[in-house]
Amino acid sequence: MSEPVTTIITCHANADFDALAAMIAASKLYPHAALIFPGSQESALRNYFLQSVMYLFQFQNIKDVEQQHINTIVVVDTAQKSRIPHVEHLLEKATVHIYDHHLGETNDIHAEKSIILPWGATTSILVHELRDRGITVSPDEATILGLGIYEDTGHFTFSSTTEHDFQAAAWLRACGMDLDIIHDILRRDLSAEQLTLLSRLLDSAVTHTINGLEIVVAEAESETYMADFALLAHKLMEMENIRVLFALCRMADRVQLVARSKIAEVDAGLICRSFGGGGHPYAASASIKDRTLAQIKDELFALLYSAIHRSRLVRHFMSAPAVGIDAKQPLKEAANIMTRYGFKALPVMEGQTPVGVIEHAVADKAVAHGLGEERVREYMQEEIRTVAEDEDLYAVMEIILGQRQRLVPVMRAETMVGVVTRTDLIHLLVQEPARIPESLLPGRRTERSIAHLLRERLSPATVALLETAGRVGQELAMPVYAVGGFVRDILLGNPNDDIDLVVEGEGITFAHALGKQLGGRVRPHPKFHTAVIILPGGEKIDVATARLEYYEYPAALPVVELSSLKMDLFRRDFSINTLAVHLDPEHFGLLVDFFGGQQDLKDRVIRVLHSLSFVEDPTRILRAVRFEQRFRFSINVQTERLIKNALRHNLFQRLSGGRILHELVLLLSDAAPVDSLLRLRSLGVLQQIHPAIHFPTTKEPFLREIERVLTWYGLLYRSERPKAWIVYFLALCSGMEAADFSRLAQRFGVSQKQHSMLSGLRYQVRGALMGLEQGLRRGLSRSRLAEILEPLPLEGLLYAMARSANHDVKRNISLYITTLRDMKLLVSGADIAALGIPPGPVYGRILRAVRRGLLNGSWSSREEQLQAVARLARVWGQPRPKARSLDRSAGIL
Q: For the domain that residue 299 is a member of, what is the CATH number?
């Protein structure tokens, strides 16, 4: 039996030839070590590794190594934990040795032995170790090590090449290094796809002058992942004689960034490390997920500007002295100050410390809603970031662009000495327009293509429908977008067939044109500029004109005006519901994100769009909780504070009961109604809606039991689906007196029909449970069980099942739901008529008697039931005898 592996050698993820060669060189220094190769995205390296190297050396998968025995880890070509995720969990319990040539990286691995030298290749460092220790290498090994040195020094042409790299190559040549093999492997001919992508990079390449330095930025997009993108950047550098290049390419779900620099003033490695990648000052790369190409370009320019203009500190361009307002001051005072000085925002202070930012638009609107006396603290933006006066420009850019914070307080120790506003930043950058990040330009949208997700996660019929909508919009010169929850759920991977379309034009005109194309009928609503298209199969498509809603007073119904897509999305409730997708043929699948919805989906937070959102529409509070519990997100701190502010003003009292009931029905019909109810109770919402439904903790087990019963029924996969909200609503009202229930129904605007149904159901369930318990004491037949439960609808049955604590009662209700309720007679009145019996009440008596026999197991087939009908007809079809019971003479009870 072989000895367990105690030493492993590895390198960074997405390895290059230098990393692979350095691992093999290290294996000569640590002869009993296992080599753990984390993989590579370069096709030439992958092919070479698979065809040659893995057969010559002891490469293993980390999963196949008995990790408890590992006591030494040798890491080559990096000293960063983030670049070795495959072994990061082992670092704390093992001795670590590092060999690397990246001096600029943040070295966060604690190592007992560390050799980090500023040479052209890590392999060169290890070759010197081999030579100094007198360890020889074979010609094959020398060739592999030479590959690493030749690639990472650019065939000894990169400015980072040192005399040590030449010396290492000379020693390897003496050991038999084959230069023909190295030439063949490193010579890479471009495929047709690579040539196409290179052409796109050439066409898009733009030269930007930053502080006198020419920097080229090129970009492209590819539907699929393409290996060796770095090779294209290298070719572009050669063809155009570029000194500094940043090449970006959107590939499937990520953006690849390759950076090359031939000048000391621009550190490519520093830039790429800011994006989570790595490399050298002259050659580096990064693979970036969850950000759009435009966002990455913004950050790239900010990084370049900051890195090149390090002497441009915040104190050089801040606005000073700073004007602020105390957190305890009223909103009307904040509005007056901003109007007086022409400010768009103010820092909110506690003493000398900024604790928030209040925007002019929020303060003005709050005053218009009669909230001018409220303290600024209640509606300010919390969790703001500040900068020190000696920080550089990038810190401010990241806050204004990345955090969407309009104003950044500037601190000296604990005192605010100035502010930097979005306007300050624009004034600073306007001298070089090519350097202004797109996020600062008016009307900017954050866009990326999700066409592949549409085709992966939607049915072909739905995709075809969306494409048809886009073509119709193009013909009418009306841009069309899919918006809201439909788009959100595509990104989350959740099923959602409710298609909402927004048209920048006239929605009703578009709806008629699309309805004609789809063979559907249109139901227009001219007052709201909306329409519903009803398709032949019954499916519905909601169409709206891009519109702006404003509220004349708190909790009012909205007033609708025509507007643009951006304003239409801004009227919505939460950032995750503001996403839109282009449907026109030229831009099909392009995602539009004005308000950071993608980031909030990634961070799993529910964030309201503006500070007065809950004041204008308190029902959004119910929606916030519903989405929080459905997606297992969290309401962010600012949004929760605004909920509590709205509750403090008792705004639910101003809402119509119908609006509250509508949202409550949606919440009780959603995925996690009990969790939502508990959350609403903890926030104090239920008591404001109506004190009668502010349930005590003792009712929680009952609500959980209803949840279990509904889950149980769902697992039966029956076609009949219960209205879950009715079951939960009955539970919330359990124990309530009839008069209290009527008052609650009246507050919620329940219709007379609904009120009769709900109140009647309460009594029916109570009577059914009493009948079941009495029947069980006397002996309950299946036919009697059915007689007791048949009057109840499905919701009543499930409610009764959850309400009873008697196991036998639950078991019998379950029997009725799963078996007896579906048992149908195979005979009818026609069969009785065929026997010559005149129509009359006797038909019902016969059929009920046969059904009782069916339920009790007396007969099941149609033939047996026909025989029973005939027997009963002979008895009941004649004049009724006076001396005995006909039921018993029929022998059916």
A: 3.10.310.30
What are φ and ψ of residue 509, in 5° steps?
A: -60, -45
Q: If you ran DSSP here, which 8-state letter would residue 556 be given?
A: P
Q: Which residues contact 670 (CB under 8 A, 6 or more apart)?
A: 626, 629, 630, 676
Neighbours of 101 (CB within 10 A): 27
- With bands split at pLDDT 50, 70 and 90, how would you rate the model's confidence at 189? low
Spatial contact of 101 and 28, defined as CB atoms under 8 Å apart: no
Residue 358 in contact with residue 379, Cβ under 8 Å?
A: yes
The dihedral region occupied by 276, where left means phi > 0, alpha psi between -120 and 50, and beta the remainder, is: left
Q: Is 457 helix (H, G, I), strand (E, B) or coil?
A: helix
CA distances from 513 to 2, 502, 506, 520, 582 (A): 75, 14, 11, 10, 18
Closest C-alpha to 503, from 566, 547, 549, 545: 545
Cβ atoms of residues 607 and 574 within 8 Å: yes
Residue scoring higher pLDDT (7 or 892): 7
Give Cα separations from 380 to 331, 488, 613 (angstroms).
10, 28, 13
Q: What is the pLDDT of residues 77-95, one digit of tens each?
A: 998 888 898 898 899 889 9
CA distance 180 to 185: 9
Q: Are 115 and 125 in contact (CB under 8 A)?
A: yes
Number of structural domains in the chain: 6
Report which residue type is found at 414.
E
* Residue that terminates a domain, selected from 773, 794, 822: 822
Is residue 700's pLDDT more than 90? yes
Cα distances from 678 to residues 142, 630, 687, 768, 798, in angstroms, run: 68, 13, 12, 30, 21
By CB atoms closer than 10 A (0-12, 13-18, 19+), residue 10 is: buried
On whether both 198 and 136 belong to a single domain, the answer is no
Structural domain includes residue 214: yes
Are the C-beta atoms of residues 435 and 210 closer than 8 Å to each other? yes
Q: Are residues 564 and 665 in the same domain?
A: yes
Residue 37, both tokens: 């190769």
The Cα-based distances of 292 to 197, 296, 448 in angstroms read 19, 6, 6
**Where in the sequence is the domain holding 479, given as residue range(s)?**
446-676
Considering the domain architecture, whether residues 206 and 137 belong to the same structural domain is answered as: no
- DSSP-derived letter for residue 69 is G
| Neighbouring residues of 99: CB distance < 8 A, sequence distance ≥ 6 | 22, 26, 74, 75, 76, 77, 115, 116, 122, 125, 126, 129
Q: CA neighbours within 13 Å on the CB side: how many for 859?
A: 21
- Answer whether 228's CB lies under 8 Å from 44's CB: yes
Considering the domain architecture, whether residues 53 and 30 belong to the same structural domain is answered as: yes
Nearest partner of 223 among 262, 183, 193, judged by Cα: 193
Domain boundary among the residues 256, 275, 308 is at: 308
> Which DSSP string do the residues of 137-202 spell out, in sequence order?
--HHHHHHHHHHHHHHTTTTTSTT--HHHHHHHHHHHHTT--HHHHHHHH--PPPHHHHHHHHHHH
Are 62 and 141 members of one domain?
yes
Identity of the residue numbered 585: P
The confidence score (pLDDT) of residue 809 equals 95
